[in-house]
Amino acid sequence: MASVSIKVVYQNETFLQAGIKKKVQISEDQLKFINRNRNKGFLTVNWEKTGSKNLLKYKVSNMTALSEYVKQNLTQEKYFELIRQIQRLMEFASENNLNYDHLVLTDPKHVYYDIEKKKIGVAYLPVLSRDYKCANVVKFLAKLHKYANITVTDQGVMQKYVFFLNDYLKTKKSSVLTHNHLYNLLHEVLEVSLGTPSQIAAEESGQTPADSSKTAAVGADNDHTIVVSGGKKAECPAYLKDENNREFAINHFPFTIGRKADNDLALTDKGTVSKLHAVITFENGTFYIEDKDSSNGTFLNNFAENSQRVIKEKLNSGDVIYIYNIPYVFTVNSADNATVVVGDNANRKKSESKNNKSKNIAYLVNSSSNEKVPIFVYPFTCSEISGIVIGRENSRDRHSIYIENISCSSLSVEGSDIAEGSRESIFSGCNFLYHGIPFTFFEEN
Fold first, then answer.
1. Which of 295, 292, 254, 258 is closest to 275 using CA atoms?
2. Cβ atoms of 148 and 77 closer than 8 Å
């Protein structure tokens, strides 16, 4: 990738200056488009050509570097509003065939904020060359969070967001974050209010965003997970729930699952998952899970490499689908249960559905909220206890459960502190404190 030098220069006005090679072709059409759409979040740009370089000068007079602006005390709502503006700019760029990579989104020092207009300003590189990569949105968001001084009003939401950032940074594809992913991270995972289409339209001079029913969700916890179909749980006939209690709506059929990003549930960084691994279908009032000749198999209600793989099986509410070893609980929305239970086997299926809901192998109880967190597979991680792992070790006919501190600054088990990098055996009924929040671990019989 070609390099671009970025610095602040002071002349009659203050500019954020990007210097690129002289031979690189500038798109005058893109340059004019950017300047016409400053209200969308682009910084106005002037183009100068010297004997050795193309200079792109973005006007930032009377604006503040975002890295400095977020150091003031921000409410949680205001903080996520800044991220929403980034998402909407990315969406607008995508709708108008502007290359994501040419958005200068790697460091909050190079993004500006107009305090008077309450608008973010982002530089865009209007070049025809694809050799430039100026955007790594996850890295940008992680740095922004490091700079920010936030008054947190909902610790659960903020914890999920931080877990998402940490998890996404660990993946090799950490820069692959689209506006759809970011929209559903805010809207579906964090349930941050993003405004109605009419409100957004009023803010943006009559422009409405793309239909959000075709947006995507980024998994916040255990893997690089994308749900392309979107949609609210209340409006769908069924949904999947992962081991971290995230819910993914199934609102059309066939519902595809696989490693490719265009699947409805895309596990894009899982090498054990095939490009198109499995589909969920709905036929004559019954749901089915069907394996699509995957390399490592699909399993139902029990995972083991030598157990029976699914070819095509009926699904009952509460069944656990294993995409190889990744568990998802299939649940039929209560309003739609009658569409699943049909024929003479109705009573039997209702009984099976009721029994299948208890197929977790263990669970945690948050003693403060009494919320029950199911554990379907070991090792177990989730957003509520980010930085720790609950695992199982087998020895012939015996097994032991442990809790391991990976990156948690405050963890104690039965009154004893557990340092980072250490683990401690636990048992059913064992109590532990996670950042002062009491949990109890229970193992199913």
1. 258
2. no
CB of 385 within 8 A of CB of 406? no
Do 280 and 254 contact (CB within 8 A), yes or no? yes
With vertex at residue 114, the alpha carbon angle to CA 108 and CA 115, rounded to the nearest 5 degrees, is 105
Domain range summary for the chain, segments of one domain joined by +: 5-189, 238-332, 362-443
- Answer whether CATH 2.60.200.20 is correct for domain 362-443: yes
Residues in the chain: 445
The SS3 assignment for 130 reads coil
Q: What is the pLDDT of residues 103-159, one digit of tens each?
A: 999 899 999 998 888 899 999 999 887 777 888 888 899 899 988 888 887 777 887
386-438 pLDDT per residue, tens: 778 888 876 655 678 899 887 778 899 998 999 988 889 999 889 999 888 88
Q: What is the CATH number of domain 5-189?
A: 1.10.510
pLDDT digits (tens, 9 = 90+) for 270-323: 888 999 999 999 887 789 999 999 999 999 988 776 678 999 999 988 888 999
Handedness of CA 242, 246, 247, 253 (dihedral sign): negative
Position 219 pLDDT exceeds 80: no
Topology of the domain covering 238-332: Tumour Suppressor Smad4 (2.60.200)
Per the CB < 8 A criterion, the answer to whether 34 and 124 are in contact is yes
pLDDT at 64: 87
Backbone φ, ψ for residue 209 (5° rounding): -70, 170
CA 126 – CA 187 distance, rounded (Å): 31
Contact between 120 and 82 under an 8 Å Cβ cutoff? The reply is yes
**Does the fold of domain 362-443 match that of domain 238-332?**
yes
16 exposure class (CB count in 10 Å sphere: 0-12, 13-18, 19+): buried
**Which among 277, 217, 212, 215 is positioned nearest to 241, based on CA atoms?**
217
